[in-house]
Amino acid sequence: MSTTNKVGFWGIYLAARAVLITKFTVYPTTITITDTDNAGSKAYAPTSLTLNGTSIVKNKAKSVESKGNFRKTNGVVIGGMPIGFTHDFTLRTKIQITKITGSTSIQFVILNTSEG
Fold first, then answer.
1. Confidence class of residue 28 from pLDDT cuts 50, 70 and 90?
2. Which residues of 8-36 are buried (b: 16+ CB within 10 A; e: fewer)?
3. How is the chain split into domains, by residue range?
4. Is the pLDDT of residue 39 over 90?
């Protein structure tokens, strides 16, 4: 299974969209995150979007978490140095088992948030 956490930044048009994809498997007593990715993240000039990494924060438990750290720059980046306003933010995905009935019925919730 997978879940996608997206946040868009709008002005007159969509300036940037950050995406955190979390792939996971639900087992009878735990959830395992198998991969994280930022596919689909993009920005339109003069805005730029830099991925500072995706990671698995907590894994192989009843409650697991992944995150992606981004930097949005309204302006240009020359030689790795931003010229303009920058905004650092984090996308987080939390997945938690809420109910287990026997070995075949497992309920879980997914919470996608943005910080910063």
1. confident
2. ebeeeeebbbbbbbbebeeeeeebebeeb
3. 2-115
4. yes
